[in-house]
């Protein structure tokens, strides 16, 4: 049974590694049964109606997914077992986790092998929901690590799609958590730590002091109970994931709004009012998100807030700027859900909120059947649905409004890039990190190059070190024997070349710039030339003697 090298994710492995096998045995799990369970899940994927041309590719995807699955599972178990009261046996007994890890592994494999399989279709094949996917994807990010940045980047894009649209379908388990949370999405202050907000003092609101400072991921389930008991957990336990979910929604959409405001030249004051209106729609009119896209509500919030504050921005300009952003699609503003023939249902939604929680499972007065729905562009959605629910709230930001202006919601801080060092793949100890002038590492590197600051000669020294396949020598230490000998030979060769009247010859300058590796390569070429000349001379002498 082939196994991957220790610590490598995505390398060649067709079964659990030694560490994972030991975990199985320690938790009284049969490794053979674990392998069989994985094969059953992959068989379900293979039994999908693939075209003849794609069946071989699908089989290869299953092989590649297996190579990803076992190392990811091992690292995930190592991480989760560090949590107090968590046991390997309880995590392995939760079948949902296993299927979610297979989904992530298959998504990586299908993308690498270019198998035409939409992520939504992949979830349907494995009988998973996009809401469940969010519960485990953060753990996969940590397990895969910075070494596989391409795979992490792809899964981040998938997570973005899920947060924007896929998780808001009317049949999503998300609505159960929203119903258990009082029919509302938690507010930004309820889920974000004060350190993650831009000046929360200005908002006249207080954050929850018990929130953790970081948005760490967890399995989203109580690992101490069996899979049968998971379905019968209390409402309080089920709603735990709604907070990290909302935190990720606000983090994503604050970045989206920041990009749009930069493109539209919107100042920070108006941006905060737009954010308040957008958050209000998510918290108090969550039902508007059913089968819709977060960006649809965001663009409507931009338009209505700018309009009531007399800084009107044409809708077409908002959509044009939105289309200029990365990973956006015109279908977002060309294909908005509008309940056909029941416009008044949404008009009365605000009046009924006090007596009933509105979710997609609410009777069809608010969520009509599919055949009663139609899709039109975003302007029609704004005029027919959005304004009936949100215009009165946005009107409170108008200068002519005589009542009390609602408190502004805090805006999440822009996420700074990680200052952690990233090691480049290869045989050398070469790391890349962001420049941090406030923190100095205790261990100074032998060679350090800072873009736009360090001289060019340092970069040449790094290139020479890479060419020699040797680590740089520390200051004051003698170079390796072979390097020293080659340098001396090079100096002797260079010394044979006399200097001209105008300084060193061009040949000497070229030799000085060459590394030891280049000189060694040149010597090999010269030796071959000498051998060929001797062979040619011997051949010519033999020919002469014969004549």
Description of the structure:
The chain has helices spanning 18-26, 31-46, 52-80, 88-92, 95-112, 119-125, 130-144, 149-164, 174-180, 188-191, 227-230, 235-238, 242-264, 268-284, 294-308, 315-323, 331-334, 343-347, 349-352, 378-394, 456-468, 481-496, 506-513, 516-546; strands at 197-198, 336-339, 373-376, 411-412, 422-423, 431-432. It is mainly alpha-helical and 547 residues long. Strands 1-4 form a two-stranded antiparallel sheet. Strands 2-3 form a two-stranded antiparallel sheet. The chain is globular, with a radius of gyration of 32 Å. The relative contact order is 0.06.
What's the SSE blueprint?
Elements lengths: L17 H9 L4 H16 L5 H29 L7 H5 L2 H18 L6 H7 L4 H15 L4 H16 L9 H7 L7 H4 L5 E2 L28 H4 L4 H4 L3 H23 L3 H17 L9 H15 L6 H9 L7 H4 L1 E4 L3 H5 L1 H4 L20 E4 L1 H17 L16 E2 L9 E2 L7 E2 L23 H13 L12 H16 L9 H8 L2 H31 L1
Antiparallel strand pairs: 1-4, 2-3, 5-6
Helix pairs in contact: 2-3, 3-5, 3-7, 5-7, 7-8, 13-14, 14-15, 15-20
Main sheet attributes: strand count, strand direction, barrel closure: 2 strands, antiparallel
Strand order of the largest sheet: 1-4
Compute the separation of the termini in Å.
Answer: 68 Å
SS content category: mainly alpha
Taken from the alpha-carbon principal axes, the silhouette is: globular
Radius of gyration: 32 Å
Q: What is the H-and-E element order?
A: HHHHHHHHHHEHHHHHHHEHHEHEEEHHHH
**Unreliable stretches, pLDDT < 50, 5 or more residues?**
1-12, 201-218, 220-239, 340-358, 361-371, 470-514
Count of β-strands: 6
Q: How many DSSP H or I helices?
A: 24
Helix content: 40-55%
């Amino acid at each position: 049974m082939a196994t991957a090298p220790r610590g490598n994710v995505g390398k060649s492995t067709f079964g659990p590694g030694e560490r994972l096998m030991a975990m199985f045995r320690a938790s009284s799990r049969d490794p053979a049964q674990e392998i069989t369970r994985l094969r059953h899940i992959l068989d379900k994927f293979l039994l999908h109606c693939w075209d003849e041309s794609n069946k071989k590719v699908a089989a290869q995807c299953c092989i590649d997914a297996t190579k990803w699955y076992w190392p990811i599972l091992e690292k995930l178990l190592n991480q989760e077992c560090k949590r107090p009261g968590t046991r390997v046996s309880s995590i392995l007994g939760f079948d949902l986790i296993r299927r979610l890890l297979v989904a992530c592994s298959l998504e990586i494999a299908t993308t690498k092998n270019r198998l035409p399989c939409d992520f939504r279709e992949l979830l349907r094949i494995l009988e998973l929901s996009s809401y469940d996917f969010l519960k485990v994807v953060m753990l996969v990010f940590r397990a895969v690590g910075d070494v596989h940045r391409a795979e992490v980047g792809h899964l981040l894009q998938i997570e973005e799609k899920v947060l924007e649209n896929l998780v808001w379908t009317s049949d999503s388990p998300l609505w159960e958590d929203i119903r258990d949370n009082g029919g509302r999405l938690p507010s930004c202050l309820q889920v974000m730590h004060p350190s993650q907000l831009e000046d929360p003092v200005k908002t006249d609101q207080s954050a929850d002091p018990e929130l953790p400072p970081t948005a760490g991921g967890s399995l989203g389930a109580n690992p101490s109970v069996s899979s049968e008991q998971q379905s019968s957990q209390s409402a309080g336990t089920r709603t735990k994931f709604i907070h990290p979910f909302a935190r990720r929604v606000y983090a994503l959409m604050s970045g989206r709004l920041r990009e749009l405001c930069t493109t539209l030249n919107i100042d920070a004051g108006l941006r905060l009012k737009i954010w308040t209106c957008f958050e209000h729609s998510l918290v108090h009119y969550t039902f508007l998100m059913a089968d819709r896209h977060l960006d649809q509500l965001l663009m409507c919030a931009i338009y209505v807030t700018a309009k009531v504050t007399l800084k009107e921005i044409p809708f077409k300009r908002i959509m044009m700027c939105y289309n200029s952003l990365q990973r956006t699609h015109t279908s977002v503003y060309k294909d908005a859900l509008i309940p056909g023939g029941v416009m008044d249902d949404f008009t009365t939604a605000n009046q009924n909120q006090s007596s009933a929680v509105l979710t997609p499972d609410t009777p069809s007065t608010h969520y009509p059947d599919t055949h009663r729905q139609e899709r039109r562009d975003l302007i029609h959605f704004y005029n027919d649905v959005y304004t009936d629910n949100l215009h009165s709230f946005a009107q409170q930001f108008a200068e002519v409004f005589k009542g009390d202006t609602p408190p502004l919601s805090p805006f999440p801080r822009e996420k700074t890039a990680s200052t952690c060092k990233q090691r480049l793949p290869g045989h050398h100890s070469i790391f890349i990190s962001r420049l941090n002038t406030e923190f100095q590492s205790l261990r100074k590197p032998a060679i350090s190059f800072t873009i736009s600051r360090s001289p060019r000669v340092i970069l040449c020294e790094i290139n020479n070190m890479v060419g020699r396949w040797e680590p740089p020598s520390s200051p004051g230490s003698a170079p390796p024997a072979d390097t020293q000998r080659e340098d001396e030979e090079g100096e002797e060769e260079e010394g044979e070349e006399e200097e001209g009247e105008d300084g060193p010859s061009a040949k000497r300058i070229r030799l000085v710039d060459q590394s030891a590796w280049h000189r060694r390569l040149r010597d090999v070429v010269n030796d071959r030339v000498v051998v060929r000349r001797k062979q040619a001379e011997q051949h010519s002498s033999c020919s002469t003697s014969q004549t």
